[in-house]
Amino acid sequence: MLSDFVDRNSSIEELESHRWSAPQGDSTTLVHSVYELRKRAIADLTVEELRRLIAQDIGLH
Fold it and tell me: Own/partner pairs for 14-18, CB < 8 Å, 24+ apart?
C-alpha cells in the first residue's frame, strides 16, 4: 500500500529531492499545472490531479 512506503504529507519534489525551476512563461497550461502539482502534498492531490501526473510520467519512481 502507498502509505506504507511514502510519506503522503510530502510533495513529489520533497520525495525526489529535486526542485524544478519555474516553467517558461509561454509554456502550456498543462505544464504550469504539473509544475504546481509537484509542490503539493500527495495527500492533498485529487484523483484527477494524480491522473494528470501519472499520464505525464511525473513522480512515478
Answer: 15/42, 15/59, 16/59, 16/61
3-state secondary structure of 61: coil
pLDDT of residue 19: 92
For the chain, how many helices (H) and strands (E)? 4, 0
Q: How far apart are CA 60 and CA 5, in angstroms?
A: 13
Give me the residues paired with residue 41 across strands. 11
Q: What is the pLDDT of residues 13-31, one digit of tens each?
A: 999 998 999 999 899 999 9
Q: C-alpha angle 28/53/23, rounded to 5°?
A: 35
Amino acid at 53: L
Reduced to 3 states (helix: H, G, I; strand: E, B; else coil), residue 6 is coil
Cell of 11: 510533495
